[in-house]
Amino acid sequence: VLLSGAGTSWGADYYKGVFAAQSGDYATALREFRPLAEQGDADAQNGLGLMYLDGEGVPQDYKTAVKWFSLAAEQGYADAQNNLGFMYRRGQGVPQDYQIARKWYTLSAEQGYTNAQYNLGLMYYNGKGVPQDYKTAVKWFSLAAEQGYANAQYNLGWMYDNGEGVPQDYKTALKWYTLAAEQGYSRAQKDLGFMYHNGEGVLQNYKTAFKWYSLAAEQGHATAQHNLGVMYHNGEGVLQDYVYAHMWWNIAASNGDENGGKLRDEVAEKMYTRQINKAQELAQECVRKEYKGC
């Protein structure tokens, strides 16, 4: 995860470049950033690195992006340290090197930089560049989660949900899933729906489960779409409705859900032809509406 933010530069030219970049005027941004970067301004060096990374106003050039990120990172600029870690982790502009990625992520994370804390947590969780260590992953995810970073909140919820690096604790999992879900994080919305659906860490509440599944389904989350089909099929939190069960399972299947197609075909055996036709029409309409208001 990359991010650019304010750091040491307060010059009017730098902010002119920032505003230009934000408005898509990359030629002006480049004109303002380059002289500052060449004078050693870390903000501008990081900004220039991002432009080369994304090919905005210049040809995309990972090696040049690494050059500018490195100059800023060596000055202790946390954004650039995180970005440089990302480049080494992905092998963009440099040979892939998880150890060096960890070094830069750590330097950034120790300054409290949220993205780096999250990225470092991922490395420990997955055992990339370090021995797999769930407890250390929990440490870094926690620091990022406490700063409101939704991805980290979700991952921390997952670890409490599954007892990875911490004792299994559904109530704490519910807390972190909720915080991430309220920021619109679809995986957290789906898992929060599952907890309410099954009464894990909270009293079973089908209507609340349906609410969270719906929010995730609207973002195209196939498992949440599948689960809505289950709720319509069983009449959980909503009136039983095979037409909508068929619709959601059909949509879930089209988005890669393994069992959606099977369940769609099974419920079709209980339906009249006109109901199947209606479910198919609703599915097509729902896809056209990008799953909103289905």
Report on this model:
With 294 residues, this protein is mostly helical. 69% of the residues lie in helices and 0% in strands. The protein has 16 helices and no strands. It has helices spanning 12-22, 26-38, 42-54, 62-73, 78-90, 98-109, 114-126, 134-146, 150-162, 170-182, 186-198, 206-218, 222-234, 242-254, 260-268, 273-288. Helix 10 (170-182) crosses helix 11. The longest helix has 16 residues, at 273-288. The two termini are 32 Å apart.
List keywords for this structure.
294 residues; mainly alpha; 16 helices; 69% helix; 0% strand; elongated
Helix count?
16
**Gyration radius over CA:** 24 Å
**Between the first and last Cα atoms, what is the distance in angstroms?**
32 Å
Q: Helicity level, as a percent range?
A: 55-70%
Main β-sheet, in a few words?
none
> Which structural class do the helices and strands define?
mainly alpha
- What's the helix-strand series? HHHHHHHHHHHHHHHH
Average residue-wise pLDDT: 94
Spans of 5+ residues with little confidence (pLDDT < 50)? 5-10
- Into which percentage range does the β-strand content fall? under 5%
What spatial form do the alpha-carbon principal axes imply?
Answer: elongated
Count of strand segments: 0
